[in-house]
Give the backbone structure.
Amino acid sequence: MADVLIDQVEKTFYDKTKDTSFTVFKDIQAEIKSGEFVSLLGPSGCGKSTLLNIIAGLEEPTSGVVEVGGRRVTGPGPDRGVVFQESALMPWQTVLDNVMFGLKKKMNKEEAKERAEYFLKLVHLSKFIHSYPHELSGGMKQRVSIARTLALDPDILLMDEPFGALDEQTRSMLHKEVTYIWEETQKTVVFVTHNIRESILLSDRIVLMGTRPGRIVEVFDVPMERPRKTSSKEFGELEERIQQKLAKEIEKVMREELGDDYNSKKGALLYHTDRDMGNHI
Ligand SMILES: Nc1ncnc2c1ncn2[C@@H]1O[C@H](COP(=O)(O)OP(=O)(O)OP(=O)(O)O)[C@@H](O)[C@H]1O
């Protein structure tokens, strides 16, 4: 049985002030199996975050249904944990207290402490449990955020560009860490990214989304064993296949955004697979 079923989902936003509506995507159909690591990859604006928010229950689909574990999603629930690009830790609380916060409603203080310490150890932050968020680097804050979400034991981890704001070295370290956590906990992971390499390094499958209209362009299997090497032949070949598909999508966006200017800027739009696809002008 699919852990996440996305059935004919459409999302349209209505702008009251202009009395216009805008369809982000429609006819989105996908299944994610229990324990799978799936990335949602695509150019800026194709609706990756919107789709993730619909799975999280933070947004409602305009039509269609999302089921998690066989139950229709009607709002947020403890079966789904979300990690955003910004860690959103409480600055006045220590690392340990931040992770314990959600746990204290579910168990006594001692159990909550033990559980928080376990997950902080899993993300290699045992030495920093008494630190405050401002004393941590961006990568460490994201690890606290991951520990806080995992401690609540969701079946599914929804990650919205969790490493988007981090430097390359930190990002690379966290790729290893997330792979380790995923292998240890066997959670289902849905991971939003702009970055082709990141998606190949981490995922079992990559759902490539296109834009205008938003839709699924192709689903790529990533059969390589982990840990993956960006220098391997298979890695390079898959990267090239995805890049070619994506280039077409980006070109379409550029033509619409730049109009007549597009042809004069074309040479400047060479795209790199390890770069984000958002601000490409
Ligand atoms: N609450 C909202 N009201 C109106 N429009 C919205 C709302 N949320 C998102 N959008 C629009 O929907 C489209 C898709 O946004 P979304 O953030 O899901 O895309 P994305 O693929 O995640 O982009 P990025 O990679 O840049 O974060 C964008 O054009 C965005 O402006």
Observations:
- The chain is about 35% helix and 25% strand.
- Residues 13, 24, 42, 44-50, 194, 278 surround adenosine-5'-triphosphate (CB under 6 Å).
- The helical segments are 48-56, 95-100, 109-122, 138-151, 168-185, 196-202, 233-258, 261-265.
- The mean pLDDT is 90.
